[in-house]
Fold this protein.
Amino acid sequence: MTRHHPESMSLMEYSAGNLSEPHALCIRLHLNECSLCRSRADTLDSLGAVMMEQQPKVSVSESMFDRILAKIDSSPTPQPAAKPAPRISILQKLLGEDINNLPWKRQLGDVSVLDITEKFPGQNEQVVLQKLVSGGKAPAHTHRGTETTIVLQGAFADQNGVFNQWDFVVLTDQDEHKPVAVGCEDCITLSVLSAPVKLTGTFTRMLNPFIR
Ligand SMILES: [Zn+2]
């Protein structure tokens, strides 16, 4: 079960079609597997529809809007919502291969990467698949911009907790972490990077922008 979810604002931007293609893919993959967020997205869609209908008769203040979002975010009970198409078709369509059979490039130690930015022509962001072997450690690093990541397989842990399959995490330049792959499967993630990461530990000499 996923424990780390996208923020309501991201779900709204997704519904409105305002997200870049790689970001929308991350949200779509998460929604496919998370009934809680499908329910949240439905609620937000309804809210958006009501607001559109009411305009310009009723204006919703910013603080009220924030309260509504906070309420949706804190909703403890996942409501069942219709399950969209299985995620495998989305990923396989994109990658043309099973995720484990991709031409991974070994970076250092336990980390392999595959840059798939070219699959999103016209985007400014870098899109990278990363694999950490089961039990493996990634070097400590920070991020120069915002990085949106979804776990596609396995799980990793850092000081913020354990991130399981389909968990969603956004890291900024304020975050330094040193992920470790936990569980018996290799951990594979999909990340959308607005700027390269910066290594902070002993591997600084390996100035590779793809290591997370
Ligand atoms: Zn969710």
Summary: The radius of gyration is 18 Å.
